Amino acid sequence: FPVTISPSGRLHILNASGSGQPALELQQSNSGSNILQWKGSSGSYLGIISDTGNVGIGTTSVGVKLEVVGTKQTIVSTDNGVVNITDNSGFAANSGGSLVFRGVYNSSGSTCGTGFIDTLKDNSTDGNYSYAMAFGSRSNGSSSIERMRIASSGNLLIGTTTDAAEANLSLGAKSTTEGGQLLLQKGTSQTYATHLDNYSDQF
């Protein structure tokens, strides 16, 4: 059993064996019983890992792969939520926390990125915390790309990443031959109610 003579806690397991060997392996042979659960100083459970591999933090009732339960804080004043995602790589432009979604796309079970939510620092200035939030999706034959952005100014950008100071909504070119378009449809018929198109720099 691998041990260390310099433990850093009540239990310290040092994997001194060959590569590929886990430092700790837990197996639950009783269906419906948790693999691991832990408590705080109050004696209340803080989290579990179920026998199906589901992880619960702040809850012992888990029906999905990850469930996090906590008290929502006032985000505006604390910069904290129930879950925080932090990028600690530095303060370069476009750095920031991100979330990527994946899914199965073929009968072999292969997965790929399907979309993302990304936060991007406006610049590389030390001490400047202007960030934009971008939303991306993926079409067949291409990588996930940004489709919409909320600029640090609060302006909404669709199909463009350039924040026009004079506009609250900016629509990028639909293609190299077409300009930005705004289409408003009506009712279940989805017929045009309003269609604005600056094709050839004209409306």
What does this structure look like?
By secondary structure, the chain is mostly beta strands. About 0% of the residues lie in helices and about 30% in strands. The chain has one helix at about 75-80; strands spanning about 35-40, 45-50, 55, 65-70, 100-105, 110-120, 130-135, 145-150, 155-160, 170, 180-185, 190-195. The strands form three sheets. The protein has a six-stranded mixed sheet with strand order 5-6-7-8-9-10, with no helix packed on it. It has a four-stranded mixed sheet with strand order 1-2-3-4, with no helix packed on it. The chain is elongated, with a radius of gyration of 25 Å. The protein starts with about 35 loop residues before the first strand and ends in a 6-residue tail after the last strand. The mean pLDDT is about 85.
Any descriptors?
single chain, 203 residues, mainly beta, 6-stranded mixed β-sheet, 4-stranded mixed β-sheet, 12 strands, 2% helix, 32% strand
Outline the fold blueprint.
Layout: E1 36-39, E2 45-49, E3 55-57, E4 66-68, H1 75-78, E5 98-104, E6 111-121, E7 131-137, E8 145-150, E9 156-158, E10 169-171, E11 181-186, E12 191-197
Parallel strand pairs: 3-4, 9-10
Antiparallel strand pairs: 1-2, 2-3, 5-6, 6-7, 7-8, 8-9, 11-12
Per the principal axes of the C-alpha atoms, what is the gross shape?
A: elongated
Compute the gyration radius: what is it?
25 Å
**End-to-end CA span:** 76 Å
Look at the helices and sheets and give the structural class: mainly beta
Beta-strand residue fraction? 25-35%
